[in-house]
């Protein structure tokens, strides 16, 4: 009998200690400080990290903006320099077009002549890659064949052949240039010509970064001009493509110490950001590990005392999704900061990868602020509504997506030949999504070509049915699902949330011991939650 009494007493002591640990785990940072004087390091670190990560992103964005503007302005300059008759506006997906054989010859020789006199023409800091590189011209055509459209006869070998010629900068200034330009290579047989591709590489230096107190970058522009005659429709489309590669300047001397000092300050700031994120990563990982241990204690004790397992929803209460989000954000920030430091030191040029990492991490950092607003009942509605409506919204989107895909494929195959917004699947999907949001409706109706009355009538039936179905029914049901979840949460906040095993286990445990010390934290604990809210919901 004495042994049973000791066992029951030991079980009661374990239960009391477990309830105190559970109650403490679900407290907010201010309550934890008032209960055990535990300084909320994670909260302070997250606030500091928000300011630092945002500042870092702004600095990188301003630097990246200079890179983007330099690329875009050079591409526009290349089009005006090398494309004969370029008007400054691209025609759909190509830059310009020609319609006669003479225009084709003039455009090709115009590129060669402009490349020859580039240093005397260009306003920018451009130059050839090196003397051995040059202007590479390749023509692709069918091997042989004859064509007599008047007699409706065709005899052609569909296998293709490619012939290339290289014009170096030195050769373009001598007598050899005239011999190469007058060779049989430039005698084009347009009835079997598929395309002519002119490629050349230029280098340039961006000096505008000096005004922003940054070291200049060296650029390599791989330009390609394509004369596309695949359709043989009497219209040759001219495409201009430029791939820009940022390279490390091999030998540079800048006689101003301000630029180098500014670079060192930014590198030191990035290093401090990495240390802050590393500390945040360690603290959040530690909290997840401690929460997992606490969950295991609760599950084992519940099974021992009540002889049943804890439900899945109560287990998820211990999985803090905000900590997982912070950990992902910290990892991305650390990697992005390292890349940014390498870019700043001109050792790497991965601007796109660094932008994705820093941008996404900053997004997660700001989203994580909602966690601390969630400690207050007034601001917690958004989180709870999203959490309650997400499963129903995902199931609803799966069903609506099937209908959306059906309309996408149908519009592409039927209206594609008669409407420019339905020419490919990606454009069709974007057009239908804009119609769901009420954008560009009249233009979509008006731009359909009336060459076929049957297709015109079908387009009206197609568009009217899609707009009516998605705007008046599917979109309304989508909003109704979220509204229903919001009403449910508001009702729970007034009458109380459903009680689970975890809530019932902590219901009878008094937290008076935690309420005796009312000392407030000087900066963040001035705002206290009402005691009546404590048993409303466990906020993870």
Automatic annotation (TrEMBL):
Main location: membrane
UniProt subcellular location: Cell membrane; Endosome membrane
Parts forming coiled coils: none
Annotated ranges, domain Polycystin cation channel PKD1/PKD2: 353-489
Membrane topology: Multi-pass membrane protein
Family matches, as PANTHER family: MUCOLIPIN (PTHR12127), MUCOLIPIN-2 (PTHR12127:SF4)
The protein's name: MCLN2 protein
Taxonomic path: Eukaryota, Metazoa, Chordata, Craniata, Vertebrata
